[in-house]
Each structure stands twice: as C-alpha cells, then as structure tokens.
Amino acid sequence: xxxxxxxxxxxxxxxxxxxxxxxxxxxxxxxxxxxxxxxxxxxxxxxxxxxxxxxxxxxxxxxxxxxxxxxxxxxxxxxxxxxxxxxxxxxxxxxxxxxxxxxxxxxxxxxxxxxxxxxxxxxxxxxxxxxxxxxxxxxxxxxxxxxxxxx
Length: 151
Prior knowledge:
Elements: E1 10-17, E2 21-27, E3 34-35, E4 37-40, H1 47-59, E5 68-77, E6 92-101, E7 115-122, H2 123-129, H3 133-143
Parallel strand pairs: 1-6
Antiparallel strand pairs: 1-4, 2-3, 2-7, 5-6
Helix pairs in contact: 2-3
C-alpha cells in the first residue's frame, strides 16, 4: 500500500480487556506515554479494518473475531509534536473507539518500533494511567456497561 505525503486525520483506539483488566502499552516516544492499541487509518481503509491491522502490528494479535465498535467517535487536537505528519490545515483528528474482550491476560508481542512495555491493570488503574482523555473515556465506557461516561 502506498503511503501519502501526509497522514489521514482519522485513527482507531482499541481497548483490549478481560472482565476486570485492561492491557496498556507504553510508547517508545514520547517516553512515559501510556495508551491502548492505536493507529491511523490508511487510504481506503475502514475503521474496523484499521483496528484489526493495528492489533496485529502492535501486539501480534490476529484473532479479532470479538472486536466491537463502541460507537464512540471522538475529536481531539493533534499534538504539536505530531502536527508535521498531517497536511498544514489539519488541526484535529477523529478517533473511532473499539473494544476487544479476551478471556485472560496474555503476553503481547510488542512492536519494538512503537512500544517498550505493557501492563495489565484493573479498569480503574488503566483509566488513571492512560495519557489520553479519549482513551480514559473508552475504558470507562466499556466498564460501565456502555453508559455514556463523562470526559
């Protein structure tokens, strides 16, 4: 697949979780940035296809039959450190949130170009640990049985 000069300002967030715990990843850069699986949509790619691709690329997980679209579409300003990746007029990103329930915690195969560590945390701990408010909102949404959470 060809790579355009600028990234598409749409991305996915995938919260991988058990009944009680959430997988969180620490990014290589910026140091200390904690998140769920994330990634930008490529040209012609649907959000669900992107979520499946990112699960395979970031944590080596190819079994995604339980992937669930949370119906949360969240806009946020693109951080100054990452603005150069987008067309000059683009200032916001649209993120689509998904959940992937798994039976038990597992050892993910981290992509070393993106992440340096992982942890399984309780939903409350994960919501407190993640850097992004959109990530926090998706975790709270999942563990409140789909009730719309506050940001």
